[in-house]
Amino acid sequence: MSDLNNIAPNHSSPVIDRRFSVAPMLDWTDQHCRYFLRLISSHALLYTEMVTTGALIYGKGDYLAFNEEEHPVALQLGGSTADDMARCAEMAQARGYDEVNINVGCPSDRVKNGRFGACLMAEPELVAASVKAMQAVVDIPVTVKCRIGIDDMDEYADFARFIDIVADAGCDTFIVHARKAWLQGLSPKENREIPPLNYPRVHQLKASHPELSISINGGIKTLDEAASQLAHVDGVMMGREAYANPYLLADVDNTLFGANTQAPSREQIVYAMQAYIERQTDQWFKPWHAARHMLGLFQGQAGGRIWRRYLSQNGTGKNPDPNLLINGLDAVLTAQANVKTFNESKVG
């Protein structure tokens, strides 16, 4: 098994190819999650959780920490004050991020009260001012993630006006969640599910603006769906499906990026992540901080439920299993062997 201990994310260049990306997801896409996902795909563009300008400027934690292996990796930034946005963009570039993305899509009350997120779609001039200020001080791409509309501002003309004003400020890359957001009456979870998807509106935007890079987000659950979207737009962003069923990324590099590589097996990934856990030196780090992102690794496989249960039961509490992932894998392999034996006995 020694060769299984040595696999690491494979990246040779931070050049951004936007054909497939994993969405920024609050409380989920932290540096441990991103390292795990990078083991599975070398090419997918990864995004941080949203970080606010206030946290970066005034907070005491290291909100910009990431593993060098994560490239290409983008920082998603929440804020609306141009000077603060520019200052934080400089910080991101200095730390080595490949892109800084402005959050104009999150509909939560906490975000709205801070005057950033989806509510900024009603203030495109404010977003444009941030874009200009940020681009004046960094060389990395400054991009925007937005919705197709908010509340009663949900006609194509409203959407197009927002894009035109921000694009005129210098932004040439937009990631569009193909749902409007209701800022009154719906929770963030409901805003991911209730407003209907409107892919044609995003396709229309790309057709009207061939000079812009347009990625689409929302409701895409398979690589076949992603490939069909690439006939209309430049990139596809996948969120919760990529998190719940992360091994689907094993086919991303070959299917969407045209690579000719062999993705690591689930077993290899487990060994690599166990080694990653053992390398951590932060006194506050616990194995569960990484393992919690791996619950879906055996999604759809024999032993998948056993894997989730083992990690949940033995990765938390005061005395977590130091060999959590390896022992969890042993439980899965035992279950799979039992299934195989049972099936062979039926055939016999």
From TrEMBL:
It comes from Alteromonas salexigens. The keyword NADP applies. Transmembrane segments: none annotated. The lineage of its organism: Bacteria, Pseudomonadati, Pseudomonadota, Gammaproteobacteria, Alteromonadales. Gene3D superfamilies: 1.20.120.1460, Aldolase class I. InterPro entries: Aldolase_TIM, DUS-like_FMN-bd, DusA, tRNA_hU_synthase_CS. It is an enzyme of class 1 (oxidoreductase). Pfam families: Dus. Catalyzes the synthesis of 5,6-dihydrouridine (D), a modified base found in the D-loop of most tRNAs, via the reduction of the C5-C6 double bond in target uridines. Specifically modifies U20 and U20a in tRNAs. Its EC number is 1.3.1.91. Keywords: Flavoprotein, FMN, NADP, Oxidoreductase, RNA-binding, tRNA processing, tRNA-binding. The record marks 103, 189, 192, 305, 308 as: Interacts with tRNA. Residues 22-324 form the DUS-like FMN-binding domain. It catalyses: 5,6-dihydrouridine(20a) in tRNA + NADP(+) = uridine(20a) in tRNA + NADPH + H(+); 5,6-dihydrouridine(20) in tRNA + NAD(+) = uridine(20) in tRNA + NADH + H(+); 5,6-dihydrouridine(20) in tRNA + NADP(+) = uridine(20) in tRNA + NADPH + H(+); 5,6-dihydrouridine(20a) in tRNA + NAD(+) = uridine(20a) in tRNA + NADH + H(+). The active site is at residue 106. This is tRNA-dihydrouridine(20/20a) synthase.
